[in-house]
Amino acid sequence: MKIVSVNALKLEKDFRSQFQRSEGKEYSLFCDIKELLSGKSIPESLIQFCNKDGLLPKYREPALMSLTLFAGSFGKLDEIQSYIEEFFKISNNPAYLHFALYHLAYLENYSDDKLNKLAKLVYKRCFEKQLSKDRERIKLLTQALVIPSEKIQVGFLVHSITAVETLLGSYCEHVDNNKYQFHYFYLGKEISDKHLNLLYNCRSYNRILEKDSLKIAEEIVKKGIHILIDSHGVIPPNCLEIFSLKPAPIQLSTFGYWASTGLPQIDFLNIVNEKLLSQDSLNSLQEQTLLGCHYNHIAKSALLLEIKPTPCLDRKYITFGNLGKIIKINTTVLKTWARILQAVPDSHLILSNNAFKIPDYCKYLLEFFHQYGISEDKIHLLESLVTEQYHELYNQIDIILDSFPFTSSSTAIDCLWMGAPIITRCTGKKTVENFTKEILTICKTPELIATDTEEYITKAVELANDFSRIDNYKKTLRDKLLESQFLNQKISAQNFEKMLDEAVQKTKNKSQAIS
Known about the structure:
Blueprint lengths: L2 E2 L7 H11 L6 E2 L2 H6 L5 H8 L5 H17 L7 H10 L3 H11 L7 H17 L3 H11 L9 E7 L4 H9 L8 E7 L6 H4 L7 E4 L5 H10 L4 E4 L9 H4 L6 E5 L13 E4 L7 H7 L3 E3 L19 H5 L3 E4 L8 H13 L4 E5 L6 H12 L8 E4 L4 H7 L5 E3 L8 H8 L4 E4 L8 H9 L6 E2 L2 H12 L2 H17 L5 H26 L1
Parallel strand pairs: 1-2, 3-4, 3-6, 4-5, 6-7, 7-8, 8-9, 10-11, 10-13, 11-12, 13-14, 14-15
Helix pairs in contact: 4-5, 4-6, 5-6, 6-7, 8-11, 15-20
């Protein structure tokens, strides 16, 4: 992505011409990195451009989107909350609105109730009336489709192939193929070789290009799909416009996100445990929820990796770390980590992310920790690593410090697999706070869960002062993960099949009641 200094854009015509050249496909970031990262807030010059009187919504929307994306890339979303919220005042574009909604989930003061209401707002503003004619057309095509007792056709509709979709694909071989047959409807670019294996167990693979939502929905109907599964929720890029047309009698959302899609056409939401949902989400989603299967994925390259001796036993000092997304590491998290480093003499911190390719951002972080009396040689900033190197890096870390309020999920599984304990904070106010807590509870290590920030600090410092306890975790966490059968794909697939059974039965019961 091209980065343009706002100082080089002196006139509004330069601002507009830059967007015109991008043709709405590539959004340049209108800001000076040094100005952004050296200050405590988003640079005033960028805000002035975004607020410039007369700036057409056509250009203001992508300007705000660029600002949000850039701020998220450097953990500064809390500083531009008002600008993210503005999407909901000026935009009727579902892609922009879902983009904004996704980013709001990372903010401490945005409850699940607020997120669920905004998701419903996007549906009403962008889909409800606009797609009513198309929805009626699809309804006529599907009304004769009866859900059978066997050979039920299940479709996965996705824009991209991620670990989630790969995991879903792996379940197919463990599910009763006489009862369920699987199809992939893929809207992205040509599928890579590494993801082809997930298609082998599917009845069909359908790559769909350059078709509008109605045509895609019609193609799904022609395949006779009884259950259509969404794996992205509101996370961009998503398929919610197609789901809103209801091309299948049963539509189910699973994995990958934290709250309602806002669509009444989504019949069920897969959760692994009701405790995973905040009370806000539980209240608003209760009728839709199904108990399903865990998101449990470990990269194949990591399965045979050896857990090496506990680093602190040899070094005689503690190394903390976090290898998650920078968007989760906000200013409050950084301040909390700084307090922990202060309380644990000679301790180090390892972070890894592609943001560290930018020297100015590295300088900003080093100066941030220096304000707390932590020298540069104690902070290790590494670029993102390939899978095996990423897992090996956990062998260099004694204690993982989780992010908050958006906690770890797959990265929490990774660190436990490599024997690194993770301290998490869960107040229970937001569903995204519960991810790591759920994993630690399943692995019978609740002592690593804090209920507030002060307890989080206390638990981290206490563990850092107990080398033998850290060593015990290093030797036992992988076994705890295996004993929990959290990674047992066969069991997860069986739970996935039970979830499909439940969705079918509830739908049939509802139809009979209406009849």
